[in-house]
């Protein structure tokens, strides 16, 4: 949480302190302020002082930069940019300079050190190698390296916290594939592509009915007609292998659809390994 607080002094006073304590937050901040009503500095004369990189004058020990220069020592040349747009280049999404983990210097983030003495890094100081998922109270389960908040597992381990030995036994299907080619095996369990069902991504309950979406391909493959006749090999041959039959042998749902000529086509589809890979049997009469 980031707070911006402005304190304005309208008269000279002795040193005073006050405490900032937001409701619901345990942290407290004590601020001590004092006023320096008379400047005791003996400022050097001139608008180009070496203390300010010859780009500004010294006012009571602080650089007052000439036009188009900013920074503690006027070391940043902003050209025709303004200071606001320069700071914007240090902000990612939440509008905080360098994610609150660094200082914006001349439009680039200079990152602070972490609690353990390492450095934050990244264009916005968004990364560190100390805050990854733990397993058995060990960072990345002791089987990987923390890299910008994500575990990079050592060889032979996987999972978000490197908690699993690499294995595909639990993902093997009856035809000796992994998740039927429609998912990934993570921690010995299938993670299916959208719509496909656990445990092995064999069936898709939310997918369009293949009888309807494959009708045009079935018509051009089996009977050389229909809207895909001219480019049937390009569009259909890679996703469907077919045979013309007098009697079905596949034990899947029978499709009966009207083709482009108003004739009834009967066929069966069996989904093979992969997302768009089918075997088809087409009755040779329509």
UniProtKB/TrEMBL annotation:
Compartments where found: Membrane
Source domain of life: Eukaryota
Pfam families documented for this protein: EGF_integrin, Integrin_B_tail
Record carries keyword Transmembrane: yes
Record bears the keyword Transmembrane helix: yes
Family under the similarity heading: Belongs to the integrin beta chain family.
UniProt protein name: Integrin beta subunit tail domain-containing protein
């Amino acid at each position: 949480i980031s707070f911006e607080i402005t304190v304005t002094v309208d008269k000279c006073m002795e040193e005073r302190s006050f405490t900032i304590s937001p409701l619901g937050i345990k942290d407290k901040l004590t601020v001590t302020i004092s006023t320096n009503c008379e400047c005791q500095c003996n400022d050097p004369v001139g608008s180009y002082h070496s203390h300010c990189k010859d780009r500004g004058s010294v006012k009571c020990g602080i650089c007052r930069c000439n036009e188009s220069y900013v920074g503690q020592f006027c070391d940043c040349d902003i050209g025709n940019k303004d200071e606001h747009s320069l700071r914007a280049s240090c902000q990612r999404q939440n509008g905080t300079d360098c994610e609150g983990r660094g200082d914006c210097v001349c439009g680039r983030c200079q990152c602070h050190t972490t609690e353990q003495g390492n450095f934050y890094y990244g264009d916005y100081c968004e990364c560190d190698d100390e805050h990854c998922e733990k397993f058995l109270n060990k960072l990345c389960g002791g089987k990987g390296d923390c890299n910008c908040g994500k575990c990079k597992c050592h060889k032979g381990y996987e999972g978000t916290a490197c908690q699993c030995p690499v294995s595909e036994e639990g993902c093997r299907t009856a035809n000796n594939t992994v998740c039927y080619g429609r998912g990934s095996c993570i921690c010995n369990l299938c993670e299916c592509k959208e719509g496909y069902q656990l445990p092995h991504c064999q069936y898709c309950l939310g997918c369009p009915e293949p009888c309807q979406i494959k009708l045009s391909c079935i018509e051009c493959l089996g009977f050389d007609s229909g809207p895909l006749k001219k480019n049937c090999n390009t569009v259909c041959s890679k996703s469907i292998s077919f045979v013309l039959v007098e009697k079905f042998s596949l034990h899947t749902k029978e499709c009966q659809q009207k083709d482009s000529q108003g004739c009834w086509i009967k066929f069966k589809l069996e989904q093979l390994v992969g997302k768009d890979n089918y075997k088809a049997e087409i009755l040779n009469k329509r």
